[in-house]
């Protein structure tokens, strides 16, 4: 019987039509960042700060443009109403072959050339090559007339380390504005949870510029640098823990007779549905209690998860990932 189950797109169901009609009434808070009217979650506290004036940079350099996260960021920027001019640099230009002509027109193998006109430089390279790239572009950024801000997504690299590699021996005290960011891979679908912090040289205008650019791929949280390693372990890496849960759901569904394709699709729908409800700021325990009928099915499952220390396992995984992120920052 399961073999004939097909996935009905949400848009075709009566329930979804009703749900969409009800949405405005059910969604008192803005959770997504509309591109036309940027609103950022500025801290981990309750505030949702709005930005008065647009500070979107018109020229953005993307260094290491061939990688997954850089590709996601470029796609998000291009999807904006008024995309910036993107100066994409990579030593391997064939990695940029999928990009639209508007980006290809400004692609380069020279990191310095990419930075020349940029008001914001997105550093999307691997940690092992970041020091040499930073030394390479330092003089261009120091002499730039565009008041550039560097936004680094290099995992584990602290603002102090970024400052050190960007410093010029001739101007030892001169510090450039730097934003350190930890996006996560749902940036690919413009639903990243991105956590950022700024160095002392970064002014509000630089922070706004970074928020503006990073909000193209999801929600941006601004915090202290002390929380960047936890963010790396929790949201940067944590999304992989959710993918692992999806695998486990799908394996279990296959065991009970679903095809692999159905099982994976249903796992994705289940996790997305849970995420959508959580986005309405309802507490997860309340949502769980809504599903747990007295003497019913769900409570047997959730109590089995407790017996298998599900929550402790998630906590331990996050702790281990945070510890590793801290070690990477120290190295
Ligand atoms: O696993 C890693 O090292 C990076 C950090 C966060 C996501 N990926």
Automatic annotation (TrEMBL):
Q: Does the keyword rRNA-binding apply?
A: no
GO molecular function list: pyrroline-5-carboxylate reductase activity
Coiled-coil positions:
none
Pyrroline-5-carboxylate reductase dimerisation domain location, by residue?
225-328
Under the heading SUPFAM superfamilies, the entry gives: 6-phosphogluconate dehydrogenase C-terminal domain-like (SSF48179), NAD(P)-binding Rossmann-fold domains (SSF51735)
Q: Does the keyword Oxidoreductase apply?
A: yes
Checking InterPro entries in the record gives:
6-PGluconate_DH-like_C_sf, NAD(P)-bd_dom_sf, P5C_Rdtase_cat_N, P5CR_dimer, Pyrroline-COOH_reductase
- A Pfam family (short name) is F420_oxidored
Residue span(s) of domain Pyrroline-5-carboxylate reductase catalytic N-terminal: 60-156
What are the protein's UniProt keywords? NADP, Oxidoreductase
Domain of life, source organism:
Eukaryota
The family annotation for this protein states: Belongs to the pyrroline-5-carboxylate reductase family.
Known HAMAP family for this protein? P5C_reductase
NCBIfam families recorded for this chain? proC (TIGR00112)
Protein name per UniProt: Pyrroline-5-carboxylate reductase
């Amino acid at each position: 019987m399961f073999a004939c189950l097909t996935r009905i797109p949400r848009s075709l169901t009566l329930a979804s039509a009703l749900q969409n009609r009800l949405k405005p009434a059910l969604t008192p808070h803005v959770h997504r960042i509309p591109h036309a009217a940027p609103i950022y979650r500025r801290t981990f506290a309750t505030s949702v700060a709005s930005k008065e004036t647009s500070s979107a940079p018109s020229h953005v350099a993307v260094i290491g443009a061939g990688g997954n996260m850089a590709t996601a960021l470029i796609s998000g920027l291009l999807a904006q109403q008024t995309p910036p001019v993107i100066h994409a640099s990579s030593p391997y230009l064939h990695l940029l072959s999928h990009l639209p002509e508007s980006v290809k027109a400004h692609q380069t193998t020279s990191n310095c050339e990419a930075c020349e006109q940029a008001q914001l430089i997105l550093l999307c390279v691997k940690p092992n090559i970041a020091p040499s790239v930073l030394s390479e572009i330092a003089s261009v950024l120091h002499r730039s007339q565009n008041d550039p801000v560097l936004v680094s997504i290099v995992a584990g690299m602290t603002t102090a380390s970024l400052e050190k590699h960007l410093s010029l021996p001739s101007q030892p005290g001169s510090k450039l504005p730097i934003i350190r960011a930890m996006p996560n891979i749902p940036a690919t679908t413009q639903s990243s949870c991105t956590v950022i912090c700024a160095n002392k040289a970064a002014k509000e205008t630089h922070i706004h510029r970074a928020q503006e650019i990073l909000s193209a791929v999801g929600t941006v949280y601004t915090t202290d640098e002390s929380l960047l390693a936890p963010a790396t372990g929790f949201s940067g890496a944590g999304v992989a823990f959710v993918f692992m849960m999806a695998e486990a759901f799908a394996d279990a569904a296959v065991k009970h007779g679903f095809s692999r394709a159905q099982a994976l699709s249903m796992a994705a729908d289940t996790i997305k549905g849970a995420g959508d409800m959580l986005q309405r700021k309802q507490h997860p325990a309340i949502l769980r209690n809504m599903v747990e009928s007295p003497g019913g099915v769900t409570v047997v499952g959730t109590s089995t998860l407790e017996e298998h220390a599900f929550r402790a396992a998630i906590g331990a995984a996050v702790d281990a990932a945070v510890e590793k992120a801290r070690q990477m920052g120290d190295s």
